[in-house]
Amino acid sequence: MPTFVKRLLFAVLVIVALLGLNAMLSTEGLFGFGLDDYYGRLLTFIGINVILAVSLNLINGFTGQFSIGHAGFMAIGAYASAYLTVYHAPNWEPALAGMVGADAAHVLIFLLAIFVGGLVTALAGLVVGIPSLRLRGDYLAIVTLGFAEIIRIVILNIDKVGGATGLTVPGYTNFVWVGIFAVITIVVVHNIVRSDTGRVLVSIREDELAAEAMGVNTTRYKVLSFVISSAFAGIAGVLFAHYNKFLSTADFTFLRSFEIIIMIVLGGMGSITGAILGAAVITILPEALRQLPTIALFGQEFNFADLRLVIYAALLIVIMLTRPQGVLGTSEFGMSWLRRAQKRPAGDEAVGASAGVPIAERDESNTDPDKEVENK
Amino acid sequence: MKRILLTLGLTAALLANSACVRKDGGPTVANDTGAIKVGVYGDLSGQTSSFGQSTKNGVQMAADEINKAGGINGRQIQLLIEDDQGQPAQAATVATKLVNQDKVVALIGEVASTNSLAAAPKAQEGRVPMITPSSTNPKVTQVGDYIFRVCFIDSFQGAVMAKFAANTLKAKTAAVLGDVNSDYSKGMSQYFEAQFIKLGGQIIMRQSYTQTDPDFKGQLTSIRAANPDVIFVPGYYGQVGVIAKQAKELGINAPLLGGDGWDAPQLWELGGEALRGAYMANHYSIDDPSPAIQKFVADYKARFNNTAPDAIAALAYDAMKILADSLKRAGTSDGAKLRDAIAQTTNFPGVTGMISLNADRDAVKPAVVLKLEPTGRKFIYTETIQPEGAAATATTTGGAPADSASPQTAASPEGGATGSSGTTGAGNANANANGNTNTNANTNTNAGARATP
Amino acid sequence: MDTFVQQLINGLTIGSIYALIALGYTMVYGILRLINFAHGDIYMVGAFAGYFIAHGLGFALEPSLIGFGITLLGSMLVAALIGMAIERFAYRPVRKYARMTTLITAIGVSLLLENLGVVLFGGAPRSFPQLLQNQNYTLFGNAAISKSQILIFSVSIALMLLLQWIIYRTKVGTAMRAVSFNLNSAKLMGINTNLIIAFTFALGSALAAAGGVLTAQYNPQIYPLMGIITGLKAFVAAVLGGIGNIPGAVLGGLLIGAAETFVVGYGQSVGIPSTYRDAVAFSILILVLLFRPAGLLGSTVQEKV
């Protein structure tokens, strides 16, 4: 089968799957079976978190730059687009609806919001990235964290977008849109990683000095990767704002940034499927732990659901102790058929094979035997 | 590889936990048998978890009392309590869960208006009535006709303190020290400032803090330099106690003014002697000798480790009691009928005052202004201020509480209310217009006032 | 003028607390290149340990210098033990792996301490007992200093001098410096690196606990999440001064404390309302790092190829 047919097939499959899931989420359900809004919400959040995790993986996992301020960029996208849809869109929405109909007008406004959110965040990423990416390692980490907090505090002080109270936003997003953008993010990041640019990014991760010695303008590529990553975070923010229908700075604290980092480290740095898995697990886990029962022990009742965050934190530590390179390490899971669809040059395995540890620091004795198997 | 499979298996198991449910295609029919499920959500683990825990305690105590008394029309109340970590998105998630999964008949929740605003649309969409015990932002009940509240709104409480400062304390200048992260604090400041300026006062300094600030001396030093007549601190007790202490250390003697967020036993422990001379607006006072309030305070202490209830616990208790009362009157747990029953709540004798809900689904009740007395940790009743536009105003009669120094003024002596004496036990449906709203034991508040602000 | 002096005193008080906590960050980072995100929570643990010691031994009822001293030392000891336990069971097993792994482990430990705190102590703020009779001294004009502030200054300075002495004048200090230069070479020289690392954690945690008890004398409100923001700012202070550099941490802490207070005090007159207090620390940090990428006192290490 020619490649483009396969790609077309892939796209059709994705859309059918999304529409099917969406039908299950509707009131009627799909063939009488359905999921209620709670699952709809969780699935949508998984989608949004996939966008966040996969995009953060581009800068952290593939480029090896330690950025921990993703929630700040998400906030910029969310608030910029909400400003548009709350304060400006209502002015010309009736006229637009007159031309193309109300539903199409909503879609157009939403797409414009996505575009504006992504663009503003990309610009913010550029402004933040150029100065900060000159720094290395932990200095970069703390600066990105700092920028994210500054962004949050500035937004908190703008009363026009709700300040401490928060802002009610029209609900333009549904699960299908989130799914489509999640797939777009995955495809784009996947293609970047497999492209020449991706090779450069991985070379920066492996050894920045060597990359520079090979004539790579490392700053340029780092900023590029940072800007793309931010833009997707912004888009995730737009989707979040218009799905949640309510924005508050309390949802964009540095703990949110940590959560996204946890997703990618849990799944495996430098693995796209790992990031997806991490996003799904970290979204579901805290909710699933709500179902924990109350058990009588030593004559006392213990409500384990009250301990869910303690259990969550303990699980996190245990996973890191038992599986330090993340669940998937740097290998991809179940993507072989996808990879086969694209003719790939020999030696492709090298991409994303070192979990972000510079070669110089790598300790050969620690490589997990499991990993070798998975790479096959 | 094994580990991967294990992880995937776990994830799958978690997902399977959420197995598909068959949809009927129509809205769920109200289930009128078995336990009545009531959803409670709040911050039980985040930055504001003390409020969530108080809410939980108050609701739990009310529900247990109702169940012990035979439940509602023979049905027991089952509480489903969820934690939202104080994050608005999580609040919306747990509200979705409670409405869609657990099929609760009503929701009680959040303290922070921000979280209530995020969750309220889920209740509205699911046609499940939601009563917020202590979200004071006017916007909350504007979300829709299923959203109610039993506390003051910001505008009222802020204005009450402004009036008190300008009229009773004769203050000309004021400084405002608010919590920038708290919507409650911002709302109160805004309305205090507006009212104070309207009454001829001047705001000479605005400062802010956050709950996590390690100290407040920076702000207080600036306020000291401005030398205002009064300092309005619309925050929560944790910080206010420390602010009072540090203000005294800096030699600031202007009285501190605040609202119901101050009300907690910890305030005394943190602020101690420094709280002398401060005034706060509140729904009620735990030192109120009325039997209903004393019983509530005593029961609460007995149940929760000798902790005295704060205003948030009292409001949560009232929210649950009003819900139970409405359920009883509606005779069904059907959303629309329950909503109508809650909306009809009039003169409900709660521990936080005589509660009536107005057309905006907001509680209308008078506020009392209390003077803080560190010796013996007492609140001394100072005056009652009625909501604006109240048809009939309450009045205070003589008979100051035994421990009271000297009530300075009675705000509206012209009211001429003639309610009969005595307090009605909470939980009594459709009680007459009797109740205790201020600290005077013999005070009758004719709160026939269905105000329409 | 007295307002200025007053703000300076306020700023330096809070700055010395930041400095005490920043020392722990900087020492651990200097040795392991690990951002110990749980360090801020150790500060919380220290405050709670002090609370229970003071109540358990009855110092809460009768203020006395001995009571204060025992509470301070006791909480430092408890925190040191907890710090060592965390190092042994959470950090040591992942030490050899990528930096991200250790970082996530640190975040996990931090979340664990916070959530355990909420479960065990409840979220409501508790009031830390006054261990010393408080008193105010007027310096001149309106400028006042309270006994708790004097206490914070004197105890922090004493602890910092003690730390300086340990690091530069004792054998274990020499070993610590050796480990921070190069862990593997230090091991080859016969230094028990695990012991030294454990000692470093103990030392850092004890200082954070001292910070916790001292702050609680000044701002008696203690709650399980108190360490998040204070810890973050202390970390910023450590980076500002040049992470891994001990005088740098002290300088950074004092600078951040003073800057915050001055923004609160004077920001309004230049258009920065006090709501920006928390943004100040980060803004200064970013500005400084742009011009001195290794912090104020840090030295840039040239990477070898």
Highlighted features:
heterotrimer, A: mainly alpha, globular, B: 453 residues, alpha/beta, seven-stranded mixed β-sheet
Plain-language structure description:
The complex is a heterotrimer of chains A (376), B (453) and C (305). Chain A has 376 residues and is mainly α. Chain A has 14 helices and 5 strands. In chain A, the strands form 2 sheets. A two-stranded antiparallel ribbon of chain A has the order 2-3. In chain A, strand 4 and strand 5 form a beta hairpin. In chain A, helix 3 packs antiparallel against helix 4. Mean pLDDT of chain A is 82; it is low at 341-376. In chain B, 37% of the residues lie in helices and 17% in strands. A 7-stranded mixed sheet of chain B has the order 8-7-9-10-11-15-16, with helices on both faces. A 5-stranded parallel sheet of chain B has the order 3-2-4-5-6, with helices on both faces. A 3-stranded antiparallel sheet of chain B has the order 12-13-14, covered by helices on one side. In chain B, strand 7, helix 7 and strand 8 (202-209) form a beta-alpha-beta unit. In chain B, helix 6 packs across helix 7 and helix 9 (237-249) packs parallel to helix 10 (265-271). Chain B is globular and about 65 Å long. Chain C has 305 residues and is mostly helical. Chain C has helices at 2-32, 39-56, 65-91, 99-121, 147-169, 171-181, 183-188, 193-218, 227-241, 246-266, 277-291; strands spanning 126-127, 136-140, 143-146, 221-222. In chain C, the strands form 2 sheets. Chain C has a two-stranded antiparallel ribbon. In chain C, strands 2-3 form a two-stranded antiparallel sheet. In chain C, helix 9 (227-241) crosses helix 10. Chain C is globular, with a radius of gyration of 19 Å. Chains in contact: A-B, A-C, B-C. Chains A and B meet through strand 1, helix 2, helix 11, helix 12 and helix 14 of A and helix 1, strand 1, helix 3, helix 4 and helix 7 of B.
